[in-house]
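Example record used in the benchmark description.
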Amino acid sequence: MVMPKPDLAPGVPLSAVDSPALLVDLTAFERNIATMMDFVRAQGIRLRAHGKSHKCGAIARFQQAAGAVGLCCQKVSEAEAFVAAGIGDVLVTNEVIDPVKLRRLARLSGRARIGICIDSALGLERLAEAAHEAEAPIDVYVEIDVGAARCGVLTTSDALSLIDRIGKAGTKLRYAGIQAYQGQAQHLRQPAQRRAAIDVAVRRVIDLRAAMAQRGLPIGIVTGAGTGTFYLETGSGVYDEIQPGSYIFMDRDYRDNEAAPDTPRFEHSLTLLTTVMSAQPAHVVVDAGHKAHAVDSGMPAIFGCPDLVYGNPSDEHGVIRRNGDGPLPRLGERLRLIPGHCDPTVNLHDWLIVHRGDEVVDIWPVEARGALT
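Model output (structure tokens):
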């Protein structure tokens, strides 16, 4: 069930918003967008923003208007939602092996430029079969494992073999480049740890590029990187495009990374509005539990209240205690939580309440919420 759009007219105060509700501070959000675009333009690199963080057409259009070349997503159903929202260039940065899903993806090619990653001969074979229904060629990226031990071919020879196969797979498929994303590096806390992980990724890309050059193969676009490491991939000189997503929101888990010197800084623009529903002598209880925010990456922080700690979440409750001698929030008081992980938190909500200061300015639907296929 999609919840009805909140009945909130522009200009009403945040006090009119029912909790729990997911809020976007538009001023901080706009600064985050501008900070990233200033960085990529200065570096002469492309930004393909990752839509899995927000699943929201309004945000995707905002990113595209600011200068992103297109969007990434992880699922065909996300791609369908973004194309329906008017995004003209969408890359599925994931493997899709199911023929039905691949046919759905192929049908999008008449409305937008569509790309997808592969890491197997079977994946390519099924994609080529589905592409018979495509109105325009589909961009194909070969994903290589650059150290995350997740998807991607393991060896240069396997990558070369797939690239050769793409060239023989028919006119509806077009080799576009290399997907080289090191997801495990994004939340390594120390800058030196993140640099060491990306150094491995860069070396694997360099080795593949050298082998391709020896065979006279076009390298295409090298794409990858996330919010935790994008400055490293950019500085390597081998990436043409970066794919950060969480930079627009910044969750508590990214805040826990130690920032590297001279790198862009981003603000917390996404918070979860919650209300104190019960007050006890040593703790208070708020109305935001597992069903309102994800805790897979740890507990949320409490915006502007470093002396308070959130814990003990259950389905509909969270407990807040003191971290020191300060007072507890009062019964009925409203707080804002900084989610531990923004991506799955957004996926729990149908609407984003957009505000400047204490004033509601817009409401954005999360069209790709629950897009799992």
